[in-house]
Design brief:
This protein is mainly β. It contains 3 helices and 16 strands. It has a 14-stranded antiparallel beta barrel with strand order 1-2-3-4-6-7-8-9-11-12-13-14-15-16.
Length: about 350
């Protein structure tokens, strides 16, 4: 019975942690995680940081961290990037860590449209902190710090290392973007018990646009206001899909947004709409960096007892060295779509 209980708990942990990837509500503040096609899209060097705490009212809430760096190399018409992610959850210290290398190539289809396909190659490790596990075997131990168990199932616990491969593409102009990404194409094995537990392929479709409320682009000295509606739809495995839909209102340098996450057209097991959260976001956009905060109000059956989710993001951009004179003008790309307006960038 003890072995069944141990395996059952581990199964639930794996299902909760790896049946689907972690996600960011401010997904366009984590562009490399969303789609490798975003790599090098700014024509500058870019550093981003993201941190999310989900269900803080529960013991040992889910905590997710991401950091990335990318650069556009004009001579090669290519973007290069690197990303680190870490996801922690539970009292047993389950942690997943990944390092990803990203590449994208820019193709200028017309004077107003760019195609950006991308690749991502990753290496990851996941597992549990065995020192934090306590079984009935150890309850009679004279030393509470001694960890042991006579259960052979526990002895098979370890860490799993794996490679990960994905791809994606993005079409974009100054005011509209549409893309798709396909992660875990090799379906890496994440089992920590020497068996097989494959991570399903994740498909992400996303898009958005920028709608000026000024009647066009104004002078650099005039404050701009605009809307950026967008969506993201995820499918992972046979049992998980999710839709995020919302809009941000901007009056530089401030942005506020409202988002809905769920599938109201689909019923849950208790015959109610499948829904997850209402998200409120606030951002501040400056010349070289922007910072954002969002809070997820849980509207699912889990209710408000979980505490929702807090998320913060920071992106810092800095100019690359000037391109050499031998770089042909036709390789220069149009500005990328963005949530903020910068003097000299859009016009």
């Amino acid at each position: 019975m003890r072995r069944i209980l141990v395996l059952g708990v581990l199964f639930l942990i794996v299902r909760a942690g790896f049946g689907q990837d972690f996600q960011f509500s401010q997904y366009y503040q984590a562009p490399l995680y969303l789609n490798p096609g975003f790599t090098g899209i700014t024509q500058q060097q870019r550093v981003s940081f993201n941190h999310r705490v989900q269900w803080p009212n529960l013991p040992k809430a889910f905590a997710t961290y991401a950091a990335s760096y990318d650069i556009f190399v004009d001579e090669l018409r290519s973007g290069f990037g690197v990303q680190l992610t870490a996801d922690k959850m539970g009292t047993a210290g389950w942690q997943t860590t990944n390092i990803n290398l990203l590449y994208s190539f820019k193709v200028k289809l017309t004077e107003k449209l760019v195609f950006s396909p991308g690749l991502v190659f990753g290496y990851g490790t996941n597992g549990i902190d065995r020192s934090k596990l306590r079984f009935g075997d150890g309850l009679n131990s004279p030393n509470e710090d001694v960890y042991y168990s006579n259960d052979p199932a526990e002895g098979r616990l370890g860490r799993q290392n794996y490679f990960d491969v994905g791809t994606g593409f993005l079409f974009y102009s100054r005011n509209i973007w549409l893309g798709a990404a396909f992660h875990h194409l090799n379906k890496p094995n994440l089992s920590v018990m020497g068996s097989e537990s494959r991570l399903p392929v994740k498909t992400t479709i996303h898009g958005g646009m920028r709608l000026s409320l000024n009647g066009g682009i104004k002078s650099r000295s005039e404050r701009m206001s605009y809307l950026t509606p967008s969506f993201i739809y995820r499918i992972q495995g046979a049992s998980f899909s999710q839709l995020d839909l919302g809009v941000n209102y901007h009056i530089d340098p401030v942005s506020v947004g409202v988002w809905y996450r769920g599938k109201p057209f689909q019923k849950s097991v208790i015959n109610s709409p499948t829904q997850d959260a209402i998200i409120l976001a606030l951002g501040m956009y400056f010349k070289s960096f922007n910072i954002g905060y969002s809070y997820d109000f849980t509207v699912s059956e889990l209710g408000t007892a979980s505490g929702g989710a807090h998320e913060i993001s920071l992106i810092y951009e800095f100019s690359s060295k000037p391109a050499g004179r031998n770089v042909k003008k036709k390789y220069k790309l149009i500005p990328c779509p963005t949530f903020n307006s910068k003097a000299g960038f859009w016009n």
